Amino acid sequence: MSPRSARLARLSRSVTFSACHRLHSKSLSDEENLKLFGKCNNPNGHGHNYKGRKVISTLARGIDPVSGMVMNLTDLKEYMQEAILEPLDHKNLDKDVPYFSEVVSTTENVAVFIWDSLQKLLPQGILYKVQVHETEQNVVVYKGEETIVK
């Protein structure tokens, strides 16, 4: 490979945030919600430190031959601050984040929210995946897939 050819690399950065939420679907009765979500359906909500919520954003792109970087980490830090920490950290997801007024605030949907928020800020096509660690045992990975065929 010539020195001028860009090699593909993946760059990841993590942030942590704390938030509370209630798993509750407006499409279900109170009894159905309790059966489906159990203690996570507590009317007063429950909280997480996302890694307690740890979020890892991974970018994929050719290494710039001049800078030697996929992206300047300072820029990525600022994008993640705006897309993740400002709207989510120390918030009640269901009450403080308009997106979750109509969408159940599962970790899966938190990952989609973060993906969509980062996509608006990052150069087109660079975002590879978003990982949201709800706990040490529970991790959601989202790569921008919008639908699946059932």
UniProtKB/TrEMBL annotation:
It is an enzyme of class 4 (lyase). The keyword Transit peptide does not apply. Its cofactor is Zn(2+). Involved in the biosynthesis of tetrahydrobiopterin, an essential cofactor of aromatic amino acid hydroxylases. Catalyzes the transformation of 7,8-dihydroneopterin triphosphate into 6-pyruvoyl tetrahydropterin. One of its GO terms (cellular component) is mitochondrion. CDD domains: PTPS. InterPro entries: 6-PTP_synth/QueD (IPR007115), 6-PTP_synth/QueD_sf (IPR038418), PTPS_Cys_AS (IPR022470), PTPS_His_AS (IPR022469). It holds the Pfam family PTPS. Belongs to the PTPS family. The gene is Pts. It comes from Phainopepla nitens (Phainopepla). GO terms for molecular function: 6-pyruvoyltetrahydropterin synthase activity; metal ion binding. This is 6-pyruvoyl tetrahydrobiopterin synthase. GO terms for biological process: tetrahydrobiopterin biosynthetic process. Keywords: Lyase, Metal-binding, Tetrahydrobiopterin biosynthesis, Zinc. Pathway: Cofactor biosynthesis; tetrahydrobiopterin biosynthesis; tetrahydrobiopterin from 7,8-dihydroneopterin triphosphate: step 1/3.
